[in-house]
Amino acid sequence: MYYGETSRRKMEKVWVTVFMCATLIFLWMLMLKVDFINKNSEKESYKAEKLSTNYEENVEKDRNNTSERSIIEDASKSVVGISKLENSGIAFYADDKNLIGVGSGVLISENGYILTNEHVAGSKYSNVYVTLENGAKYNSNVIWSDTSLDLAIIKIPGENFNYLNLGDSDRIFLGENVYAIGNPIGAEFQRTVTKGIISGKNRTIKIVENDKEMYMEDLIQTDATINNGNSGGPLINDNGELLGINTVKISGVDGIGFSIPINIIKPLLELLEKDGNIPESYLGIYAFDKEVIPYLKSDLKFDKGIYVVSIDNQESLSGGNIMVGDIIEKVDGIEVNKMNELRKIIYTKKPGELVKLEINRNGQHIEIESKIKSKN
Question: Considering 76, 78, 126, 231, which one is annotated as catalytic?
């Protein structure tokens, strides 16, 4: 009996000890788990806080430095209002203190060169009033213009002007975001910004003025709203670079406006920056590409080159070598398929220089030389 009770008591003590040990182990493991959860919870909280902080810093940095808002606001400082004098017969003023803007322009250099439309500023030597973003006004003159391009350059005195960098209009793509800035309707809506996309490239349109037809080639089509006062203002990209000069819209239709690509005039601007003047070189001809010619001669077809439709002064050309009906395919070895491509080459030449032309004349391919003329 004694032995049996002793054995039972020993077994009870063993079970109690085992139960206590198991309880302690369970409690210890529970504490480890709670501690692990707490530590991981603190760690995740720390990461979330850092991520939130970085995001806010990036947003603030983006808003201050590279946002669409800051780019457009900076670009608008380079846009100017352009008005004609009262006695020019083109525009009028209410009084000297309240100039009524008839168009826009854009500063393209820190020393005061302004690019605009000829139909806004007028022909060379025309007098214009220029109003800057800060309210400063200048009485200035057109120093260069081209009717066929509808472009003009104005110079105002001074330095350190806000100006736009030139983009590359040859590298634009359909659907690219663009912004038109100008002064529609008048000075009360100056520097209005409209946003759109590039809807088309290399557009050719026919314009009829005073019963005279003319064609504008290689235009950029955009659905950014362009009104009358926007003429001469800039079309810019997301980087605030100048892609073109707004010129016309299709009347009676919404969302179809056109800009003159900046690359057309780059050779002239480079000469202006280098020499301080523009020699105004030209070949003395006018030609159309294969897309325009069907409007003029429905039976004429050709695959490349530009068709000569008029010559300013036959006698002034070198030996009268170029003839109406010639198709110019190359100039100094460079292919030309649009009049503007010819212009870009001629703009790099000086009056008196000779250029070599490869011409298709009635199916025969010939090479001739012609002398560069001056409009001065």
Answer: 231
